[in-house]
């Protein structure tokens, strides 16, 4: 029909797309719809399902544990946006300047944690935080900062900071790579001219690089939010949501309700709640980003 | 022609009957039983061996029964059972515990076995008293217990006690407190606690400690909402006693980030004088504990409290994990009952005892020399004492969740015992709706 050799026939296109779309429908969309259905029932797993209408949602709206875990998610998101994106930007500035030697080596080192399993990271940091044997307290002791020594994962006041640190640490490398890629697409002459004009170091990052990759930063913020709305495994390994409920996040609350308390209906409601809140927050952050641009 | 063929048929039938095992009985039809269990050899050690031996006995005696095993570690097992239950695809036989049982019973996924037990008085008489409490509902028994054990034993290091000038294990709660301050003064952690997973404080300490104050009747009255409440002063007192212990620094300060395995490590390293855990720790102690600490280790129960209503020899415990079967009929049912009988028979009991495990049945003849000193001490405590309910076996999982996370908060001074009692009662009332 057409002579363009790069143009694929419609039927071939559909054939190629089919497996991916089918898998996506089967493993993402269908469970999501099922979960929405379950969220209207009081159900503990067996044959007996009781329809409760919007009852679960009303309960969710005034469930202090759910809102507490939502607050914790927000804390993680804020800390991660500041920590991960901030550090990644600073490092990105450093990597693109002439100050840093052995760039390849540093880049690899920064990226290694990204590929580690969350469970491994959780365990490592549990050991780091250990009161008697942990390296963190040992370093503090060596620096004669005994006053700072504490059980890092046992104090509800600081536990959210303690569990966020490994998350931040692990994914700096990922954002670094994203930012570096963006910087590489900036015209070299722009950077050279700025250097001739005396704009170097932090100023170069502040006035040249950051504005030029602002779209990438926006995408990174979105990734950071969506990733941290469903954060689960690190915290589960380190504290299991404790002490009490002080480091509980939404995904873990959904898991705990569904599979420990065995309220599958209400657990589904929580999951749908997470979905709604995530979409809302991403929507808000996009609006904020657009306004800045205007 | 017809006559001949029917004669041949009759002959063939006769041959079939006479050659079948158990001459004179009906020919046993071939039966396949799927058995989903948690007796993974590497994890369960001796118990898994005893379990396998029992299944092999069934296989040998009944060639017509094929048992297909599917074994998983407990945690994944329960997830699988829940998932299978949701899809109504449970195997013929499986292992279930605690909150799962209520769900299975209320959804009619498991069948009562009263008739089978009552039909065999010898089988019935083998079980230890009280092991059916959890699996009985409205007088119907739905399964047989795998093991029975106490969940609250104090393991203490005699040498450290001597070093701190304590000649004898405290007989009362106030004596225990005195001992705790003496041990603390010497720089040891008095009581190692690893409550990260939240059940330890509740299952191993509170279940018994609360019974010391409230007595067992109160518990069932509260559970069944018959005149007792979790806000009653006697229950609040028990929470207060635990909070006081935490306030005086009896536990290690990182108790909420260590798990129950790590709580033992502090003890093994001679940094702690005591830890409180269930009988399951005995096997691990035997394996992992350094020889000198093991030699100095003694068992005790949570001491009596002043003015308490509970018996000081009682300990929380009983059977918590059960073998259950689907609503089976006919040959499959008969075969499943055979398997259940073997798994609660005297040979199984004897093998378990020799492996230093704790069966729910009276063991047959066993070799006493194979039982370790600590297991012996434990068996004596069980003989003298009695079991009282373990909270997380008896109460619903959402109520337990409130108790567990609340205790964790209370132990670090996050909430007062009174507030916790109120929260527990509020959740309990919510469930009644």
Number of strands of chain B: 14
CATH class of the largest domain in chain B: Alpha Beta
The largest sheet of chain A is: 2 strands, antiparallel
CATH architecture of the largest domain in chain B: 3-Layer(aba) Sandwich
What would you report as the Rg of chain A, rounded to the nearest angstrom? Answer: 24 Å
CATH topology of the largest domain in chain B: D-Maltodextrin-Binding Protein, domain 2
Measured between the Cα atoms of the first and last residue of chain B, the distance is 74 Å
Number of helical regions of chain A: 13
What structural class do the secondary elements of chain B suggest?
alpha/beta
Cα end-to-end separation of chain A: 46 Å
Using a beta-carbon cutoff below 8 angstroms, give the protein chain pair with the largest interface and the number of residues from each chain: A-B, 32 and 33 residues
What percent of residues of chain B adopt helix (DSSP H or I)? 40-55%
Features:
heterodimer, A: 294 residues, mainly alpha, MetI-like fold, 2 domains, 13 helices, 2% strand, B: 433 residues, alpha/beta, D-Maltodextrin-Binding Protein, domain 2, four-stranded mixed beta sheet, 14 strands, 52% helix, SBP (chain B)
């Amino acid at each position: 029909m057409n002579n363009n050799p790069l143009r694929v026939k419609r039927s071939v296109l559909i054939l190629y797309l089919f497996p991916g779309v089918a898998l996506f429908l089967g493993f993402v969309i269908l469970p999501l719809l099922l979960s929405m259905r379950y969220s209207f029932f009081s159900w503990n797993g067996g044959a007996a399902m009781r329809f409760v209408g919007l009852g679960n949602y009303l309960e969710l709206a005034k469930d202090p544990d759910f809102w507490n875990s939502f607050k914790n998610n927000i804390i993680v998101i804020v800390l991660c946006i500041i920590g991960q994106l901030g550090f990644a930007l600073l490092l990105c500035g450093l990597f693109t300047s002439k100050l840093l030697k052995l760039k390849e080596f540093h880049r690899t080192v920064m990226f290694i944690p990204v590929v580690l399993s969350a469970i491994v990271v959780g365990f490592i940091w549990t050991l780091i935080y250990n009161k008697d044997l942990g390296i963190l307290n040992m370093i503090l002791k060596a620096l004669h900062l005994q006053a700072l020594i504490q059980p890092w994962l046992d104090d509800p006041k600081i536990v959210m900071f303690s569990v966020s640190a490994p998350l931040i640490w692990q994914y700096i490398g990922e954002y670094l790579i994203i930012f570096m890629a963006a910087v590489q697409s900036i015209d070299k002459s722009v950077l050279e001219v700025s250097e001739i004009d005396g704009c170097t170091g932090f100023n170069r990052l502040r006035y040249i690089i950051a504005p030029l990759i602002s779209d990438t930063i926006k995408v990174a913020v979105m990734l950071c939010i969506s990733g941290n709305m469903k954060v689960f495994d690190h915290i589960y390994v380190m504290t299991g949501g404790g002490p009490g409920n002080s480091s509980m996040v939404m995904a873990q609350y959904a898991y705990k309700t569904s599979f420990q308390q065995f309220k599958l209906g209400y657990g589904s409601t929580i999951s749908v709640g997470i979905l709604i809140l995530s979409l809302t927050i991403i929507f808000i952050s996009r609006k904020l980003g657009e306004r800045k641009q205007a | 022609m017809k006559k001949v063929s029917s004669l041949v048929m009759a002959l063939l039938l006769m041959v079939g009957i006479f050659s079948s095992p158990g001459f004179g009985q009906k020919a046993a039809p071939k039966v396949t039983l799927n058995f989903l269990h948690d007796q993974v050899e590497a994890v369960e050690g001796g118990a898994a061996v005893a379990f396998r031996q029992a299944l092999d006995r069934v296989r040998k005696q009944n060639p017509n029964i094929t048992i297909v095993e599917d074994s998983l570690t407990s945690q994944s097992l329960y997830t699988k059972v829940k998932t299978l239950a949701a899809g109504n695809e449970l195997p013929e036989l499986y292992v279930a515990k605690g909150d799962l049982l209520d769900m299975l019973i209320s959804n009619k996924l498991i069948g009562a076995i009263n008739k089978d037990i009552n039909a065999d008085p010898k089988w019935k008489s083998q079980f230890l008293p009280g092991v059916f409490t959890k699996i009985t509902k409205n007088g119907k028994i739905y399964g047989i217990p795998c093991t029975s054990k106490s969940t609250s034993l104090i393991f203490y290091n005699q040498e450290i006690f001597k070093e701190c000038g304590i000649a004898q294990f405290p007989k009362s709660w106030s004596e225990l407190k005195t001992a705790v301050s003496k041990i603390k003064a010497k720089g040891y952690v008095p009581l190692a606690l690893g409550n990260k997973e939240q059940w330890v404080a509740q299952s191993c300490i509170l279940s018994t400690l609360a019974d010391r104050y409230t007595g067992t009747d109160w518990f069932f009255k509260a559970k069944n909402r018959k005149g007792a409440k979790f806000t009653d002063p006697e229950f609040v007192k028990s929470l207060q006693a635990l909070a006081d212990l935490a306030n005086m620094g009896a536990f290690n300060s990182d108790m909420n980030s260590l798990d129950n395995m790590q709580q033992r490590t502090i003890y093994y390293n001679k940094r702690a004088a005591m830890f409180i855990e269930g009988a399951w720790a005995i096997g691990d102690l035997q394996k992992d504990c350094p020889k000198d600490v093991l030699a100095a280790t003694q068992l005790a129960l949570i001491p009596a409290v002043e003015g308490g209503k509970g018996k000081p020899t009682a300990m929380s415990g009983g059977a918590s994990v059960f073998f259950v079967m689907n609503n089976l009929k006919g040959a499959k049912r008969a075969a499943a009952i055979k398997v259940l009988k073997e798994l609660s028979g005297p040979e199984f009991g004897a093998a378990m005892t020799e492996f230093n495990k704790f069966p729910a049945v009276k063991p047959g003849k066993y070799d006493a020399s194979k039982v370790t000193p600590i297991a012996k001490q434990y068996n004596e405590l069980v003989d003298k004492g009695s079991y009282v309910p373990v909270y997380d076996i008896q109460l619903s999982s959402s109520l337990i969740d409130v108790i567990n996370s609340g205790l964790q908060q209370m132990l670090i001074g996050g909430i007062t015992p009174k507030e916790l009692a109120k929260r527990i009662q509020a959740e309990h009332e919510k469930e009644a709706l």
